[in-house]
Fold this protein.
Amino acid sequence: MPRKSRPEKITAGLTDAQREAVCYGEGPLLVVAGAGSGKTRVITHRIAYLLEQGVLADGVIAVTFTNKAADEMRRRVEALVGEEVHVSTFHSFCARLLRREIFRLGRDPSFTIYDRADSVRVIRRIVKDLELDTSTFAPGTIMAYIGVRKDRVEGAEECRKTALGVVDRTFAEVYGRYEEKLTESNALDFDDLLLKTLELFSLCPEVLQQRQERYLHVLVDEYQDTNLPQHLIARALQGKHRNITAVGDPDQMIYSWRGARMENLMEFEEDFPGTHVVTLERNYRSSGNILRTASACIRNNVFRRPKELRTERDDGAAIVVARFADSYAEGQWVAEQAGELVEDGLSLTDIAVFYRTKLQSAPVEEAFGLLALPHQVVDSVGFYDRREVKDLRAYLQLLVNPRDNESLLRIINTPRRGIGNRTVAKLQAAAEARRQSLLEAVRDAQQLEGLSSRAQGALAGFLKLYRELSELDAGKVAALVKQVLKRTQYVERHPPDQQADVQEVVDVFLGIVRQYDRRHPEGGLMGFLEQAALVSDVDGWNAQASAVPFMTLHSAKGLEFDAVFIVGLEEGVLPHRRALEDNVYGSEDPALEEERRLFYVGMTRARHRLFITHARKRTVRGREEEALPSRFLDELPEEGVERLPGEEPAGAGGSAGGFAREMEYVLKRKRVSLRILEGAGDRLAKGVRVSHPHYGEGEIIESSSLGTRHVIRVNFIEHGTVTLLLPAEDVGPA
DNA sequence: TAAACCGTTGTTTTT
DNA sequence: CAACGGTTTA
């Protein structure tokens, strides 16, 4: 096949280090790429280069972190060499593979993908069935437990065998039941997509072998954020040809709560003997001031391989740090500054606003609204979580997978059609007894005793509706959604004052569906549902739309903008309070270091201008609370950073030091009672053993008094070292 | 069965 | 301040 040969186009403009990575030949390759060092460029150009070298497009698999990044990479490769390569996320790659092959594991290919909320609902029902105490066995806690286990590739059986104690054994028990429920419903959760793929590879070597033959090259972006199952999948795929390219930056690892393992990157050379390593330390994105500031901050991380990024760019404008009375004043200032940047010639899409949590978007949105500055909150996941969208998806899902009990439970009485809790409970009992799905139980409901004729009628009506819907031609998803809406009177059956809101959500959903129909004429209903299940927030961001994007720091990874605003640099927000809970001292704390990396990711997104803001007061759950400046602000250098009036420079007056701040934080959060187990003399002296309602037992390793209060460091048996600050009256004898 | 009410609870980040 | 679960009442 004749190919337009353009090697000069592919390697032109690359630096030596970039070219070394792009043109590397056979064998494992690790590209440690600092922020802004052209990492995406290296991957796309490497793929293009490989194709130029004669590798068939079909023999390349590239994995990115989001679908949007995948689309972008595919587009860029196509622009370079005119060929379409396979780029996807781990999850969608696995989903597609499993649709083809999961029958080998005795499962049906029309499986439903459950999101976290679906999973929690399943667990909630199990916890109820088992009559467990819902505070010890909170569904969310159990879900987190299962998630951690799955990230470690540990099955329910394994957990049951290794469980220590009653609580742990119960967790494992629920895990086992959860797996059963999902199997009954023919559903997979996010983690299962990865785990079932691994299971398939080990139980059906012929499938793995076929994939290994096919993939001459495997390329994985953002390797620092891969978890163990993903690492194993990448490893499996490259098994025959041993051509794996991993690209990543340990300083940007921000998903440890989802099982991401920095070790996958750090120990890459041991896992793949003979690895060639290319390090990219030159930054082509950010001004000198921005890069120096970000570097100064990240340098405070202890668990880190030192790396010094250098930029060729000018120092540029100073970074602006500003403090405001509250988050509304903060938002207003951000909007005003953004407006000025636009007047100076920046376009709206060159500007971005980042925050730690989605809750923070509201005040900034409001301010942008007041100034009539177009903006868009990047939050597709939030949209798909809307009740209306989940309802409609459940209707569609049940058509694809009639065994999906979770979807059936969601819609059997939505809108209300007279099928109440008691009727549903009877259906569940019948389904369990006859080993049927709930829909089958509905079908056979006339044989059920103890159902009122009213309930019978309602069930018959639902069954009729289901049958009518399933007979419709599923060619266009939008047409199907419209039929669901029409036949259920979905919008009309809401209270009149809600109908406008519901209609709006429905219309946006219909827009998404139509767009899917247009782009994937052959995709079908199952394809749509799969895509909907695997969206990330940024996937829904329209980068073309002329509006300032607002997004979380997590979503910002991999993007860049001329001007960046990071809001809410406050203790408890960034770093987030959850990260401060276990360890408040020093920087040996992994959770705190991840928060710092998050800040680092945010700062390094900026090309020319960086604005960092915080507020004195923040409204948390309806209550206004004092907010302290983030400790990360103290870590910024003085040079190249302009602190606006009202904003004190680091350490000014000697009162804003780290210790005092930590104290105040602890004072607020950690005032709890402590029991002394043994030890005489000074009640809170070193060596005294204590018991804490949350942390359990431990031994005091450091103690001092602060006025009427005590500051102690305790080494807890199960939780490690924790610093506590407590008033004397909060301490009681054993 | 469904609406209305009340109390509890939690509360980051997202494939 | 939500959202959710459970209870009571029509």
